[in-house]
Structure prediction request, 187 residues.
Amino acid sequence: MQHEPISLTELEKQVCACHACSLADARTQTVFGDGDPHARVMIIGEAPGKNEDLQGKPFVGAAGKYLQELLALAHLEREQVFIANVLKCRPPSNRDPKPEEIQLCAPFLRMQTRAIDPEFIVTLGNFATKFILKTDVGITHLHGQLHQTGKFKVLPVYHPAAALYDPKKRSALEQDFTLLGQLLAAE
Ligand code: URA
Prediction:
């Protein structure tokens, strides 16, 4: 299905229901997605951290800088992809999101994905991969393998934050983003 062109502001209005969510009540910012709403590639992380909370954007800390380097291996700039998280906010005391919190956010990630309608979804780490592929298989086994979920091609990779200080994960991530570049060029 072809979608009408949509601006980031319009997309946010349509799919960000943080204003209606009790978890976001006490927060000054909620972290909506970022990038091109018509992107071929949607990147899905886990949940915002402190830096993201402050800036209202996903992946702006150290993991975000590394993600940008990884995107370059796939010949992509950050502005050309759409970056979202499974959870759009994380209550300050909560490092371990509860199923009911994930439940609250899930429909909006789904709407966001449908509105953007990417060809490829890259899931970063176990949490996003399990959520999108509905699997219990860990990222160690799944990374770098292309899956088809409905109309989307899904490429699970390690989370860049987990790879920052782990050379093995770094080299796997770098290979997986190089593969993404090849897949994009082949389409
Ligand atoms: N890690 C994530 O999973 N998401 C962010 O936005 C930042 C770090």
